Amino acid sequence: MSESDEVLRLSGIEKGYNHGEPNEILVLRGADLTVGRGEVVALVAPSGAGKSTLLHIAGLLDTPDAGEVAIGGEVMDLRSDRRRTVIRRREVGFIYQFHHLLPEFTALENIVLPQLADGVAKDAAEARGRELLDSVGIAPRAEHRPAALSGGEQQRVAFCRAMANTPRLLLADEPTGNLDPTTSDRVFDALMRLVRETGLSAVIATHNHELAARMDRRVELDEGRLRPVA
Which residue intervals define the domain ABC transporter in the entry (predicted)? Predict the structure, then answer.
């Protein structure tokens, strides 16, 4: 893969906690991962293996103890905090297991707000928000607050919010993990359709092997390192 086709590159990522203590925990031990343009990668790992830590580092929400993070060929570790913030806001979308929607705002407003923070005009932000809600099948719920939405609807709004600023990289941490199997399958279909239609690159963490098999390839986090899964 040429460097111009790389959307995300993690090289030799190490991360530990309780530094210098006898009970120091090494979560990542030289993890390497390259994600190409338009590629959807399943990150498979049991709970506690460090997948959330890896995604937070990839999404510039945390910093590694060693190693290098590059997004779109730009090495982040050498950039200022301000530059990292700009890249995180414009280039990376993040979806959590629990939606983290702002309860006092409607579904549409939750999608509009990050666009306004990035300088998008309100009318354009609302148009983008409605387009995204329509793409995941919940346009009629635009004016509802999160408490009036089902779990699956809330997570679809979270998907739309992550896509609002047209990122090039989507990172999702067990995005359907708190949903029942039927809803999980339906919501995952909506997510994959949205990703494919926009040509995004994505890393999606899941412990559901059936969902993982529907992505382009699978990698497993095992003892702090990533290895391909056949």
Answer: 8-229
Tokens of 138: 């919940």
What is the tally of structural domains in the chain? Answer: 1
188 DSSP β-pair partners = none
pLDDT tens for 112-126 read 998 998 889 999 999
Per-residue pLDDT tens over the stretch 36-47: 999 999 999 877
Of the two residues 48 and 127, the one the predictor is more confident about is 127
In DSSP terms, 33 is beta-bridged to 10
pTM equals: 0.85
Label each residue of the chain as H, E or C. Answer: CCHHHEEEEEEEEEEEECCCCCCCEEEEEEEEEEEECCCEEEEECCCCCCHHHHHHHHCCCCCCCEEEEEECCEECCCCCHHHHHHHHHHHEEEECCCCCCCCCCCHHHHHHHHHHHCCCCHHHHHHHHHHHHHHCCCHHHCCCCHHHCCHHHHHHHHHHHHHCCCCCEEEEECCCCCCCHHHHHHHHHHHHHHHHHHCCEEEEEECCHHHHCCCCEEEEEECCEEEEEC
Provide the token pair at 112. 């509009």
CA 91 – CA 165 distance, rounded (Å): 8
CATH number at residue 217: 3.40.50.300
